[in-house]
Amino acid sequence: MTSAALDVHLTGAQRELYEETRAIxxxxxxxxxxxxxPGRVNRPLVKALAEHGxxxxxxxxxxxxxxxxxxxxxxxxxxxxEAETAFAVQGLGMYPILQADRAxxxxxxxxxxxxxxxxxxxxxxxxxxxxxxxxxxxxAKPDPGAGGYRLTGEKLWISNAxxxxxxxxxxxxxxxxxQGITAFAVPGDAxxxxxxxxxxxxxxxxxxxxxxxxxxxTGHMLGEPGTGFRVAMRTLDLFRPSVGAGAIGMARSAxxxxxxxxxxxxxxxxxxxxxQGVSHRLAEVSARVEAARLLVHQAxxxxxxxxxxxALAAMAKLLATEAAQEAxxxxxxxxxxxxxxxxxxxxxxxxxxxAPRIYEGASEIQREIIARSLFKDAEARRSVx
Length: 385
Known about the structure:
The protein is α+β, with helices and mostly antiparallel strands. It folds into three domains: 3-114, Orthogonal Bundle (Butyryl-Coa Dehydrogenase, subunit A, domain 1), CATH 1.10.540; 120-226, Butyryl-CoA Dehydrogenase, subunit A, domain 2, CATH 2.40.110.10; 230-379, Butyryl-CoA Dehydrogenase, subunit A, domain 3 (Up-down Bundle). The chain is built from twelve helices and ten strands. The strands form three sheets. It has a four-stranded mixed sheet. It has a four-stranded antiparallel sheet with strand order 2-3-7-6, with no helix packed on it. The longest helix has 37 residues, at 228-264. It is globular and about 80 Å long. The model has no long low-confidence stretch (mean pLDDT 94).
């Protein structure tokens, strides 16, 4: 299949964005990524994303198009998963601040973040509160003497921690499960804030944060008290389809490698592509990946059209990340032990493709969102009969 057939639903400008981003990732970003320290923020890489204009799709004119996020993240993931993650987390960390419409915070942080000089992060997850945001326990207690709040508690599995310059932090200001959560902008050098990096399967920067009475001025509150859940969900609703897009980028890269290996590797007197067990399996998984990609784009376009659907976004993320896992695993199987050697591109993808099925809502949570929506619609249909 040609890219023209697969991209017929995209505009010319969108197709151009995708191809230009792929070229940048391959020629410029991937070499920088390889020179970084695994598990720590690669500041030259973030700077390069800015210099090549990619942050303009996050912070350009104050609006963010979900379909552009999808195209950029997929294109980056085709050649440099580190760049794809850095791009996404920079957006996740800064977007709530932009939406809060606090001029002083935007003026203080946006120039540095957009230029790749300041690193942003989105601090939501806790040891006992992953996909269940209502279980957050990090507290924000009013401090009348300081004119703000004191944050106490812990965040875990936070991308770019502990190296970020700025964190969007979600803390509990009352006992209400959802209406008791408030969002804050917290500088990375705030007194009482500490942390350490964690070693996970993927080499991307991720860590733990500890808040020991961290003082946060009232002016650093993002929105009104108790609106933090909405702040988090609004951000995740925008970025969730693009999680699937990043996974699709990895899947397409892995499948391309599998196709090329299958036509050049000979076994039992013929190429692997001549074995029906191999060729039909590649065909089936490729079809699933391309179908998931179209669903990702549909979820993004629905968001951009002002008709966002949490269930559609959940379907897109679920199918894309699950299909990507299957595609990378199949590509490794086609290559055999060669793909397991440290440093092989598929060995790298095999580690990276696992995380998207967990973060920003695990696959099990996406299924729950979808199921609730389906049954809600069924109840609504019954009520009008």
